[in-house]
Amino acid sequence: MSDPITIRTDTLTVVVDPLGAELSSIRRRDGVELLWQGGTAWTRRAPVLFPIVGRLTGDTLRHEGRAYTMTQHGFARDRAFRVVEASPARVVMRLSDDAASRAIFPFPFALELVHEVEGSTLTVIARVENPGPGTLPFGLGAHPGFRWPLVDDVAKEDHVVEFDANELPEALSVVGGLLGPPRPIPLDGRTLPLSEALFADDALVLPDVRSRSVRFVARRPDGSEARALAFSWEGYPDLGIWSKPTGAPFLCIEPWLSMASPVGWDGEFAEKPGVVSLAPGESRTMTWRVTV
Question: Secretion signal: which residues (predicted)?
Fold first, then answer.
């Protein structure tokens, strides 16, 4: 297996592991690490979610009369990607179907992840291609976890997520990993105050968000910004925000294409609400960025 690859600018150093094409580090010039480094609260750092986002009912993918076991968030995060390009500021990794993948996901596919840095910005581009003769149904999501608190001397409760557009003050509930009815959240127009209690019932799932960017902000008692991350996305209609209500020092900001199965739904995977389908020869590209 290939070693992790480092890309950098004068102000930003990023490490990407070919195992899962997963971000391992986002470090500022002053040495401050902004990506959660894994631990007992959550062992991962920024997994790629493919070919599903969230859970399927009974962890079962149904296709043409057969049932395949597919656990939460899919298998790409645990597979070794092939490095197809590497330069000082850009790395491209690729995963394609094989006998092992087709045993649990019976579709030809190619998934390419591009990580590139410019100035203080990391851009992550995901491209899914359908090289097969039939339709390719899939979901894809990003799951980066950032340190929370962003600054050691700012309390977690003095952080907010600021949306670039007004959003509804509700999120879909999560019931056993599946999607339930909407529940209220303390979102005031464009500002979501953060607290550990916010995640007592799992992630905040925001379907069809109007916003295409958020700012994750640490504020001092006088209202000034101690630190902020600017996070934006293209091609992802949905957003998840997740941590744990148990003192876990991370916050995940997750742009999604597709979501978990709704409670009570157990049909053909290709007909699952929110699933994306590519015709033979088609591809689809999604992008997210973070500026530190």
Answer: none
Q: What is the pTM of this model?
A: 0.97
Q: CATH assignment of 5-291?
A: 2.70.98.10
Residues 6 or more apart whose CB falls under 8 angstroms from that of 98 comprise: none
Q: Hey, which residues does 146 pair with through a beta bridge? A: 35, 251
DSSP calls for 36-87: ----SS-S-SS-EE-S-SS--GGGEEEETTEEEE--TT-SGGGSBPEEEEEE
pLDDT in tens, 204-222: 999 999 999 999 999 999 9
202 close to 172: Cβ distance less than 8 angstroms: no
Q: Where are the domains of the chain?
A: 5-291
Residues in CB range of 205: below 8 A, 6 or more apart: 171, 172, 173, 174, 179, 238, 240, 259, 260
Residues of the chain with pLDDT under 50: none
